[in-house]
Design goal:
The protein has 13 helices and eleven strands. The chain is α/β, with parallel strands linked by helices and 357 residues long. The strands form two sheets. Strands 1-9-8-6-5-4-3-2 form an eight-stranded parallel beta sheet, sandwiched between helices. Strand 4, helix 6 and strand 5 form a beta-alpha-beta unit. It is globular. The two termini are 27 Å apart. The model has no long low-confidence stretch (mean pLDDT 97). Flavin mononucleotide (FMN) binds next to strand 7 and strand 9.
Length: 357
């Protein structure tokens, strides 16, 4: 029997050939990307955390039209937002000058723009009906009855952890493998409680800690951009590497022109952890929005995803004014290493680079 730390255990569990996971990226990854990655022998993923059941089912069907390989469907397990009308009204007032500068008006009220999987029975029913090979959790662990229902349907479960405690919670809840998300990672930090102290562990330390502490396979994520990075993660005892930023510039990605241009410019050298865009810490290319949010204390920003309602409106206003810079341009610290290759070619390059190492 291979040990949990042997990549073979994870590859067999996921039914893939390469120890590479294309990260779920809500709003950026796509069914075409997940299918291309799956057909190339790695695990492709879609993020449905920011969408509804109808669109999630459509995305799953689109992958199946293009591939019969396994794929991962990712959901958000954040604690449902508690509305704080005073904070939200003050936030709208604070953003008003930015909207006005762009010739737009801010929203009059903010809403919780999408539901947490913790309370989304329709999404659970859809996943149980559609049975993707893999489902993954970000921002927390669902209740044990939800986990059990997914396990009973034969679905392999992954969860993101940024600390040993979060990883232990995920394993106790019943996930089959844990994604060790280091501070270098692009996009939302998977912290379960965004208001708790954060040790900000890097991918290398977190991977080693989880490999030592857990008896399930560990997938390293954060700053991995090429085959050398995946090989380094395997040397640390991870069973695979999960790469997000590496796939943003692929033609299959949904990133818009401004985001792609920023990623291949000098701007890629500067990423910032910001809470101002969505209400939760996320690593973003330094832009006008991250600069605006830099000095704002966390308690003055509405809860996730209520703040994101305003963030998306500001981005839309800035795009229509032809003045980009307010986008959620999530990216990890390895951003300057991103390549504009088709997803299948990127996976083939990663595999070749791993062999060369
Ligand atoms: C654009 C973008 C969107 C992301 N969206 C999600 C998501 O929807 N769900 C999720 O679990 N992780 C998401 N992540 C985080 C990734 O799962 C992963 O932790 C991260 O990409 C790894 O770091 P890297 O970007 O340096 O490769 C996102 C990351 C990026 C860059």
């Amino acid at each position: 029997m291979p040990s949990p730390a042997s990549p073979q255990t994870l590859l067999a569990l996921l039914d893939i050939e390469l120890p590479i996971v294309q990260a779920p990226m809500a709003g950026v990854s796509s069914p075409a990307m997940a299918a291309a990655v799956g057909n190339a022998g790695a695990l492709g993923s879609i993020g449905v955390g920011a969408t509804n059941v109808a669109s999630a089912r459509k995305m799953i069907a689109e992958i199946r039209e293009r591939s019969n390989r396994p794929f991962n469907v990712n959901v958000f397990c954040h604690q449902p937002a508690r509305s704080a009308p005073v904070v939200e009204a003050a936030w709208i007032d604070r953003l008003r000058p930015e909207f006005n500068r762009l010739g737009a008006a801010p929203p009059t009220a903010l809403t919780e723009i999408y539901k947490s999987f913790l309370e989304d029975d329709d999404m659970l029913a859809a996943l149980l009906a559609d049975k993707p090979k893999v489902v993954s959790f970000h921002f927390g662990a669902p209740s044990s009855d939800r986990v059990q229902a997914l396990r009973n349907a034969g679905i392999v479960l992954l969860g993101s952890a940024t600390s040993v405690d979060e990883a232990r919670t995920l394993v106790a809840a019943g996930v089959h493998a844990v994604v060790a998300q280091g501070y270098e990672a692009g996009g939302h930090r998977g912290v379960f409680d965004p208001d708790a102290d954060d040790d900000r562990l890097g991918t290398m330390a977190l991977t080693r800690l989880l490999v030592r502490e857990l008896d399930v396979p560990v997938i390293a994520a954060g700053g991995i951009m090429d085959g050398a990075g995946v090989s380094a993660a395997l040397r640390l005892g991870a069973s695979a590497g999960q790469l997000g930023t590496a796939f943003i510039a692929c033609p299959e990605s949904q990133a818009d022109a401004g985001y792609r241009a920023a990623l291949v410019s000098a701007a890629a050298n500067h990423t910032v952890m910001t809470r101002a865009i969505s209400g939760r810490p996320a690593r973003c290319l330094a832009n006008r929005f991250t600069a605006f949010g830099a000095a704002i204390p966390a308690h003055e920003i509405p809860a996730y995803p209520i703040a994101y309602d305003a963030g998306k409106a500001l981005n839309a206003a800035s795009k229509s004014a032809g003045e980009p810079g307010f986008g959620a341009q999530w990216a990890g610290q390895g951003a300057p290493l991103a390549r504009s290759l088709p997803a299948a070619d990127l996976v083939a390059s990663l595999a070749a680079e791993m062999k060369a190492v």
